[in-house]
Every structure is written in C-alpha cells, then in structure tokens.
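RETRY 2/3 - previous attempt timed out on the joint model. Re-submitting the same 897-residue input unchanged.
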Amino acid sequence: MKKIIINELKIIKNQKIFVGYLIAIISLWVVATTISFKQYKGEEAVRNQFNNYHRQLWENQDPKNPHMAAHYGSFAFKPANSLSIFDNGINSYSGSFIYLEAHRQNDFICSPAQNSSIFLRLGELNLSFLFQIAIPLLILSLCVGMFNTEKSSDLISFISVNSFSTKKLLLYKSYALLLINSAIYVGLYALTVILTSIMGVQWALADLLSLTGLLFSQLVFSYILILLFLLIALKAKDIKQATIVSLSVWILLFFILPRIAVNVCNTLYPLPSNLAFKEEIKKDIDNGINGHGKGDREKLVIDSVLKANHVDSTYKLPVNIDGIMLFKGEEYSSIVYNKHFSDLKNVILKQQQTAEVISLFSPYLLIKNLSMSICKTDLRSEFNFREQAENYRYYFVQELNNNMKLKSKENEFNTYKIHKSDFLAIKDFHYQADHFYDVIKHSWLEIILIMGLLSFLLIMVKLKA
Amino acid sequence: MFTTILKYELKYFLRNKIISVLFAVLIAITFYALYNGSTFYKKQTSVIEKLKVKDSTAFQTIIQNFKAGDTLTADAKWKYKNLQRASWAIFDNRFNVFWQPKPISVINIGNRDVYPYYQEIMPVSLYMRLFKNEISNPNSLLIGNIDFSYVILFLMPLFIISLLFNFISENKEKGIQSFLETNATSFSNYLYCRLAFYILIIVAILLLLFSMAYFLFFKDVSGILFLKIFIYSIFYSLFWIVICFGVNKLNKTSVFNISFLISLWLCFSILIPSVANQVAAYKYPINTEEISKNIRRVQLNGDNKEYSNVLKKFYSKYPQYYNNDTSETTLFSLAYLAQGQLSDLEGDSLLNGICEKMLLKQKFLKRISYLDPCMYLQNKYADLTETNLIDYVDYLKRLQRFNKELKLFYFKKAFTDDKMDLTYYQKMPKWK
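RETRY 2/3 succeeded.
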C-alpha cells in the first residue's frame, strides 16, 4: 500500500496542472489572507473606538432623570472576531451594532452590504472561498486524470481479474490525494495563524481549538470530494467524460444547488415585512401596559399596588408609582418583543434547517454552514448576540426604572436626576461568544450529514469500484 | 456546404442527450428565476401599496380631526389643538417614504434585497430611522438570489462552454481532422460554418429565454428597454463564444479546454469582481459604526438654560426662524425641534459623506467593469433595472430633500407661532 501511495504522490507531483494550480492557490491565499486580515483589523479598531466612545458618552452624560437616561440609551457592538479571518460568514449582510433604548427592541442596522455595489453579490474573495471553492477545483482537476494511465493501458481489466481490486486502487489513490490536500490545508492554516500572530492577532487557545476543528472538517470535506471525483473518474469512459461530469457536478453542488435550496426555503417559509412585523408589535403593546400611559389597564396595576401597600393614594406609597409603571411597562413590552422576535427567529431557523436538509446533496453547503458555525459568523452567533444585547438592554433599563421607583417621588420627573456615579454603576456590555463545545453541540445536524455523506461515498466505493 | 453543415450540426445538437438535459435544466431554472424575481417584486410593491394606504388614512384622520374641531369631546379638542401647533404636530405625524421597484427589476433583483426601500420618518431626527432595513435572513442574502440575470450571467456561459469546449479538439480526438483537412473545402471554412451555427443556436436560445420572460412576466414593460437588455446579453454570449473558439484554437486537448474555460469563468464571474469589490471597499472605506453617532433620540434634560443654549446655537445657523417667546412650554418645544435639527445637520454631513464614498466606489467599479464582461453586464442589468448602488444613493438623496421640505413646512409655523389649518395641511409636501 505504502509503495502505491508513494508512487501516486510522485505522479501527482510531476503533473503540470498540479504545479499550476498550486501556484494559483498560493497566490490566492496571499490575496485572501491580506484582505481578511485587513478587514479584521479594521473592524477591531473601529468597533473598539465606537464602543469606547459610546461608553464615555454614557458615563459622562449630563445629570438626568433615570428614565430619560434609559431613553438616551446605549449601544451593543459586536466585538471583532479573529476567527472571521478564516470565514467571514454572514458578517457582510448583518450589522455590527444594536441601539439599545427603553420600550423598544431594535435590530441590527446598516450592514456593510447596504453600502456596497451589486458586485458584492458575485462573491467575496477570502479564505473560506479559497478553502471551500478554489481548492476543491484543484482536487477535481487532479482526480479526473487519476485513472488515465490504468485505463489507456487497460490495466483496469488486469487489476479487476487479480486479487488487487479497483476498490483498493481507488482507496490508495484517495489516500495519496488526501495526503496532498492535508499538506496544503495544514500548511495554509498554520501559515495563516503564524503570519497573523506576527502581525498582531491574538489567538486564544479556544480559537486554536476551533481552528483545529475547522481544519478537521475541511479535511473530511475534501475527502468526500476526493472520493466523489475519483468514483466519477473510475466510472467515466475516458478523461474527457470524467472532466465534463466532474465539472458539471462541481458547478451544480457549489453554485446552483445552494442558491436553489436557499431560494426554495425562502418561498416555503416567507418572512414578514418590517411593516407588518412592527404593526403586530404595536397592536400587542397598545393592548397592554404602556409605562407612560394612563389607560384602564394602567389603572388596574395602580389599584393593585395601592391594595398591596394598604394605602389609598399613590402619594402615600413608599415608592414612586411612575417608576413602578415604567418597570411594569418595560416588562410587558419586552414580553411582546421577545415573542415576536422569537417567532421571527423560528421562521429563519426553519429556512435554515430545510436548506440544510436539501444541502445533504451539497457538501459545499454543509461545510459552509459548519465553517461559519465554528468561526462564529453564522446565524446562531447572530441570534446569540441579539439575545445578549437584549438581556443587557433589559438590565440597564430596569436598573434605571428601579432607581426611579426607589429613590424618587411622584411628580419629581423633572427634578430628580441621577449622576455620574449612577451611570458608572451600570455595567458595560460584554458579549460572550459560544464556546467551541457549544458550537459542536449545536452543529450536530451538519456533523451527522457530513459524516453520513462520507459513509455513503465509502459504501459506494465498496459497491461500485 | 453551409446548409449541409448546418443540417448536420442541428441533428447532432438535437440528438445529444447531455445537451438536451442541460437545455431543459436551463429552461427550468429560467422559469424559476423569473418566478422568484416576480415574487420578490410583488412583495415589495405590496408593502409599498400598504404604505400608501397608511399615509392616505393618516391624512384622512388629520382632516377628520380638523373637522371635529373644538366642538366635541376633550380628546377631540386635544387632537385639534395638537394639529394646530406645528411644534407638537411635527412629532405626531409620520411619513412613509419608499423606493418603488421598476417592473423590469423582476429580471434583476440586484441589491434591492439588501438596500432599505421604505422608511417611516418624522421631519426631525431623520437619522434615527433612515438606516432601518427590511427583515431578511442574512444567510439567504449571502448565498444570493436566483433571478433571470443570474441565468444569463452565470449559467449561459456554462451552457456555451458545454457546447463549445471541444469545438475543434473533438475532431482531432475522433481522428477526423486529417480527413477534413484533405477535403476540397478548407478546414477553416468548415470551422466558421460550425461557429455560425452555434452563434445562431445561442441567439435562438436567448431569444427563447427573453420571449419567455417577456410574454409571461412583462407584458407592460417597455419593449425598447427589454430589447436593450437582450442586445447586451447577446454581446455577452458572443464574448463567451469567441473565448471558447479562441481556447479551441490553441489546439490543446478537450480536457485542457474545459478546465481552462471553467477557470476563466471562475475568474470573470467571481474572482475579478470580488477582488475589485474588496479593493473598492478598501479604497473608499465606509464605517457603518459612525452612524451610531446620529441615531440617538433627541435629549433635553429639563432646564431653561439648556433650552436657551440649544436655541442660541440653532438661531445662529437659522436666523430666519428667530422667535423671542421665552415661556417655558414654547422654549421647550422649540428647543426640542432645534436640537433635532442640529442633530440632523450632523447626520446630513455624515450621509453626504457616505453617499459620496458610495458613488466613488461605484465609479471605480464601473471603470474596472470594462475589463470584465461579467461585471460589465451585471452593472448594465443593474443600471437598466434601477437596482444599482447609484439608484439607492439617488433614493437617499431624494429622501433627504423630502425631509428638508417637510421640516420647512412645519418650521415655518412652529417658529412663528402661527397656527396650522386645514388649508395649510393640504399644502403638505408629498413623497413622489
């Protein structure tokens, strides 16, 4: 086996196409790493700058009523993520910050795509493009010619009548190709990490663990492609047919099927318009408690507070009724917003899960989803950030409402003011990204599908080779 | 000879199972792409229709509240008074602005799914609402849409490559080239005849796809616009035919030809546009985080000194609005307006800066697009269907102007203490 693999490696090494593609891949790697690194550093600098700017504004704002401060609000900035150098995921289509204010839950605004030209939609050159699209093309071009010599010299017939089966031959060739791919992937990963470290990126141990997981997934992905294209090459009449079929499969799996899967899912599970979404929220809020309102529902709350405190007037309460109402109003509006955002999230997740099932036939979509998850640039991470930002918004708004409730009196709205020490007491927002183990736990579907696809191809090799 | 070759090629073309399958796939995807584009267009127009109804209802309510006047309940009186006082009414009235898609945009969704296309604005604090976007799944945006332009830009070249990658090499590989060369007719004439056949076939297929689009989805669209797009698409396809012919002329194997052509396709369709886009983003960087400076609510902390300071700053910029009323209520409401306007003024310069960078980016990419037919055609499609960055910038500019008109409408009355009446309301600027 060792001899065959070494022999195959020598043959591959001497192929002009291999050398040509290798040069192209290295050139692309240089460009992609530069672009991804610069993008990351830019994001890191800008987000830190604006995060600090808004925190300073918050801490140094003029004394004001706590609820006014809650209206003034704050911002949650998504911290730059070093793993995005390897896969930028949905970052171009999602915003980087959320405005947090009383009574409302806002969404991300202004994604980078929003100020980009149409050409952004033709693709982005980054490391994920290199690893997930360009290198598979190299795998394809190596695979199609792998049985050329055996076929032209009719060695295949000789092999099939001997104890050495074509299955074994295919597997040995696949090992040789996997070795070459592993060398390319490991080399490029290691070089990227080393170079970016030298240029100032701090890779935490957890990041390196994630990258090891990503590398392993990429290798499984490349082995799936190797088996697929080798099977095509083996079954094809000649190299020409193998090339045509393999390229058609590559285009179908990498360019057409993902788009079809995603577009079909959008049709199956349509998202509401922002207009309809906001109207639904407004309807629910209007039918509930508004912290500033004086309707029947608010009166009911006031009566229950008076009853609980055994008093007949809000002025006799030990706390500020306005603070209580604002607290209750915030509680209610948060329930409404959470319900509607959760419904929205469910529709998006349904789209995503259905696309994943369709993507069973597209290893590209599987690896793309897995890679984005590992690099924390996927939808789950976006939801995770939104949820943490919302928890923070709820925390600071209710802290301020509580301050008003406990420390001020009714009708002191214009006179009671909190100061710098109170603003400092509100903790800053810190986003906690998922740990690698959580990512793996939540990516079970992709992992099962990708392993299932590998097993299926190994069975196919056994049956068809 | 020409007709004989045409007949032979046509028979070959019709009997080739792979080509028949590819052709059927192309037709099916085209149909789906048109359906998808049409669904997207209908969704956007339906939202816009609802906005128009909402605006019209809001205006009817204003009329009703005016007609109800002083005569009815306390609530009606309150509403009536609010409508009369411009400095209060300015915060009660909301306006919906929208970027109407053109019916032709069915064939090219472009970036319309990324750009915000409607906003509910108030005359002051514009920037708090300007950048809010339509709900979308970012993952779907990343993968992209299937629309008619996708078929022409990406799939048509692949179809052409599949037809022509072995246009010359096949003769050599089948061993018939020497036979053809020894015939009376020159080999090159034979090749040109075949080439003419394939050009005719491609034009016919394009005609079929465009007819399908026109008769099924665009009965009301200007034929000339459609013809323009069709002609651009023909030239684009001819480019790929020429490329295929040129690669074949290198006299390499079919395997080399197809690998080389697919690499070219990858370069023209993805690599060059993405590198160009990244360079443009680097050359004209837009930090969306900067917008965070201008989207906060107007804040006044509740003392007359602060109100006076704000107004002083405001009057120094807008002396025409000077008002010497210093009663607390007036001072507060005018200071609130003034603060909103001062904040918008900062927002204006930020937006102008962003728009300028967007236009420079677009200009730069347009220049690059002359080197890449795929980029060029994509840009042309976006231009003709008005789904380009330049159209979005135009929408933002129109929105900015409309907002200024609205402000002027309210400020004229707010700072002069004049009451607004129904006749004045009927002169309210309308979004066009």
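Chain B has a mean pLDDT of 87. Closing ticket.
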